[in-house]
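for the recovery benchmark. tokens below, seq after
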């Protein structure tokens, strides 16, 4: 019998849900109890306390007042039934804006001690659904009429009565709570004046992935391939074109009442950093997963990605507001849309956001031959995004030549720092490293974008010319070195060119082409590789022979096309100069001159 005697350990009660450490930190920071609390000493629950819907008194908390209300909620007491003749049973320590049941809500978190008189009883009654609704007591001074904007106590409009507006439509009157001065308390009540108030033990948005019943996560959107030359795409194929922004590519997911946002590497973005923006978006019902761009603004000016990063991390930033743009539909109600035609997905998005079209960027369906016109029409200062209609390929065309890179080492030199960077080519780190000096404060491992005047390849050798730090890495695409080649079906003469410093601060451009190795020499004044890519015109003149200075060659490349158009000569070049370039007659101050420029729109 002794061998049959043992111990049995049983738990009759389910353990309480885990309290995120961040919430414990907020209790100690916002309430400052004499002795810091821990997850083992307190219970935490949350109330959906007010929404932007009209309540039973005819009042409404507009979204633009929610942040003011949140500030007043912190450190307010929690009572039972608004009874002020008894002491509080708990205290509010944190609040945030959330989207729930197609309405904008304030969710307030409160805590109480486990060893308090009401400790276990309060927890059990909340979790069993007995204590289910809540209410708020506050002071405000201006009931703003929802129809005329006046003090509703002075105007003719009465809450819940219908009135004909200037547009001829009938509208039911209500008032907005304005000039909120103080929150007196929140209470657990038998019936709240705001419809659908509730108390929950859900402390965070725990469901971050849309999953089917089998538990399969919906697909991640395809990578975006960077290109520098629109001629690299097929002129006969159709593409969907949208503006490109300096932005973070994010995945937005909605499942039931829960919403979440992640970077495209699946790193979550903290909910309280984006809730103000989400509160202004009218979301469609059902579950969906979207490929989006998060953009930071100061007024109407878009800010750099580095400033956007600071903003969502809670650091001081020039960003004053966030904006979300929906680019693509990945999954809807557990159905995979990632393999459908991009035009079909766009039309579905227009249906879903029919009442909120401004969340979608403008888009046009064009042939590859017309991409330059689309760039001019809807492109931003950054460029355009391009979606192939016959495949899952996506492209990012930037007006600047930008390459993702990783910081490998840092050396400080006063106000400047020297960075050794490794470019990311074809989605992978490259064996090439470059040294860049910059005043930007970056750390080892940071992903950045560097701007170059060109990338030159010679066999296995890869050379970045004039690399500079542009900004933090904002897109989850990659740069494809092979897309630099210009597709030109009218290649007439092959050859090569050399660019080198000449006398008196000029550059000399030497062309060698044709079966007889014909050479031409040009002198270009005040030439700049960086400015030529931005469409700058340079004075150029034909010279009889090469006059090389003692300086080294600046760069070389191939000439893959040569076309005479009237008095202009157009060259298609690869290498240090990439794209189409023209030598064209012009008039300057009444004099006939010749200019050299890069063609930034497609020749007809």
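predicted aa per position
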């Amino acid at each position: 019998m002794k061998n049959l005697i043992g111990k049995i350990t049983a738990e009759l009660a389910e353990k309480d849900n885990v309290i995120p450490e961040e919430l414990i930190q907020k209790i100690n920071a916002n309430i400052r109890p004499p002795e810091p609390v821990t997850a083992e000493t307190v219970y935490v629950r949350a109330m959906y306390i007010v929404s932007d819907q009209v309540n039973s008194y005819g009042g409404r908390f507009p979204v633009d007042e929610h942040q003011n209300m949140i500030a007043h909620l912190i450190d307010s007491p929690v009572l039972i039934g608004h009874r002020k003749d008894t002491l509080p049973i708990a205290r509010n320590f944190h609040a945030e804006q959330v989207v729930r049941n197609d309405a904008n809500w304030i969710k307030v978190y409160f805590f109480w001690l486990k060893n308090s008189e009401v400790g276990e009883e309060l927890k059990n009654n909340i979790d069993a659904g007995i204590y289910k609704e809540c209410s708020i007591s506050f002071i405000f001074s201006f009931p703003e009429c929802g129809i005329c904007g006046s003090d509703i106590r002075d105007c003719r409009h009465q809450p819940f009565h219908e009135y004909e507006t200037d547009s001829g439509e009938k509208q039911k009157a209500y008032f907005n709570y304005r000039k909120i001065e103080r929150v007196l308390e929140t209470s657990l009540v038998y019936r709240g004046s705001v419809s659908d108030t509730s108390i929950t033990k859900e402390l965070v948005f725990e469901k971050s992935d849309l999953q089917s019943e089998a538990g399969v996560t919906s697909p991640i959107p395809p990578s975006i391939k960077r290109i520098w030359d629109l001629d690299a795409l097929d002129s006969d194929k159709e593409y969907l074109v949208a503006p490109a922004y300096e932005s973070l590519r994010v995945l937005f997911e909605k499942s039931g009442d829960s919403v979440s946002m992640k970077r495209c590497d699946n790193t979550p973005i903290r909910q309280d950093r984006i809730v103000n923006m989400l509160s202004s978006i009218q979301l469609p019902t059902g579950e969906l997963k979207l490929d989006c761009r998060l953009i930071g603004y100061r007024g109407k000016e878009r800010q750099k990605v580095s400033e956007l990063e600071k903003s969502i991390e809670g650091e001081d930033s020039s960003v004053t507001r966030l904006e979300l743009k929906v680019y693509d539909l990945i999954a809807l109600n557990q159905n995979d849309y990632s393999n459908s035609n991009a035009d079909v997905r766009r039309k579905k998005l227009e249906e879903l956001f029919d009442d909120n079209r401004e969340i979608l960027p403008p888009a046009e369906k064009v042939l590859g031959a017309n991409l330059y016109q689309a760039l001019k029409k809807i492109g931003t200062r950054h460029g355009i995004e391009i979606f192939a209609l016959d495949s899952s390929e996506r492209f990012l065309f930037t007006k600047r030549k930008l390459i993702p890179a990783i910081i490998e080492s840092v050396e400080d030199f006063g106000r400047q720092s020297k960075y050794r960077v490794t470019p990311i080519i074809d989605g992978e780190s490259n064996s090439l490293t470059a040294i860049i000096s910059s005043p930007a404060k970056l750390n080892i491992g940071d992903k950045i974008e560097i701007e170059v005047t060109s990338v030159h390849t010679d066999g296995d050798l890869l050379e970045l010319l004039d690399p500079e730090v542009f900004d933090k890495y904002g897109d989850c695409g990659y740069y494809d070195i092979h897309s630099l080649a210009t597709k030109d079906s009218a290649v007439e003469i092959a050859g090569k060119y050399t660019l080198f410093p000449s006398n008196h601060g000029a550059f000399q451009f030497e062309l060698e082409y044709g079966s007889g190795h014909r050479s031409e020499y040009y002198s270009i004044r005040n030439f700049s590789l960086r400015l030529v890519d931005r469409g700058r015109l340079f004075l150029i003149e034909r010279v009889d022979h090469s006059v090389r200075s003692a300086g080294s060659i600046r760069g070389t490349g191939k000439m893959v096309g040569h076309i005479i158009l009237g008095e202009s000569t157009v060259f298609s070049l690869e290498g240090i100069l990439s794209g189409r370039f023209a030598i064209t007659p012009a008039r300057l101050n009444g004099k006939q001159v010749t200019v050299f420029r890069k063609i930034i729109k497609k020749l007809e």
